[in-house]
Amino acid sequence: MAKMTLLPSGESSVSSDWVIAGASPESTRWESLDDDNGATSYVSCNDSGAEMTIEFANPSVAEADIDFSVAPFVRFVSSGRSDHRRVPSLVAISFEAPVGVSAYTESCSYDAHVSSFETINGTARATSDGVNPWTYADLEGLEMKCTKSFTAEIWLSYLAIEVTYTKAVAADNATFFGANF
């Protein structure tokens, strides 16, 4: 099985409560989430109910190079921490787009920690809607929504989508033509 990572490429429908922060803050929220660099750049939020929708880049692997006869698995990968000394930060992370993709909302509890960030991976899903396997069209234009719960501030440093897939096998025309001509 091969893997590709879809990184943030834009944002839509973002509450102003999600703030760009860090020792070297980026220009946008999505740029703050495109690499796992801890407190160097991140987004923070302490407002319960605040939402942030992040858009992701299209697959870096061509459709013809993925064997869709074997369902790919898709999950989110994140890194964050609570800014509170004892209380974890809670964030619900879900698929938001494209149309037809199930939300698969997962509640993430990032531990309270003074200096380190915790990695939380979503559940690997073999279907886009609970029934049908993922298609290339499903992988294009994916968006994820983060919804803050309660008031312990979250520092979210990384959010990506990991796709595990089977590589397509290329036909060996040399064998065919060599044997028949």
Describe it.
By secondary structure, the protein is mainly beta. Helices cover 9% and strands 39% of the residues. The chain has three helices and eleven strands; from the N terminus they run βββαββββββαββα. It has helices at 29-32, 136-139, 173-180; strands at residues 2-6, 8-12, 19-21, 42-45, 51-56, 73-82, 89-97, 106-110, 118-121, 143-149, 154-165. Strands 1, 3, 4, 6, 9 and 11 form a six-stranded antiparallel sheet that branches. Strands 2-5-10-7-8 form a five-stranded antiparallel sheet. β7 and β8 (106-110) form a beta hairpin. The longest helix has 8 residues, at 173-180. It is elongated, with a radius of gyration of 19 Å. It starts with a strand and ends with a helix.
Write the layout of secondary structure elements.
Elements (H helix, E strand, L loop, with lengths): L1 E5 L1 E5 L6 E3 L7 H4 L9 E4 L5 E6 L16 E10 L6 E9 L8 E5 L7 E4 L14 H4 L3 E7 L4 E12 L7 H8 L1
Antiparallel strand pairs: 1-11, 2-5, 3-4, 4-11, 5-10, 6-9, 6-11, 7-8, 7-10
- Class by helix and strand content? mainly beta
Radius of gyration: 19 Å
Average pLDDT metric: 92
Note the gap between the termini.
35 Å
User: In sequence order, what are the helices and strands, one letter per element?
Assistant: EEEHEEEEEEHEEH
The description of the largest β-sheet is:
6 strands, antiparallel
Gross geometry: elongated
What's the helix count?
3
Could you list the spans in which at least 5 consecutive residues all have pLDDT below 50?
A: none
Helicity, as a percent range: under 10%
How many strand elements?
11
The amount of beta strand, in percent, is 35-45%
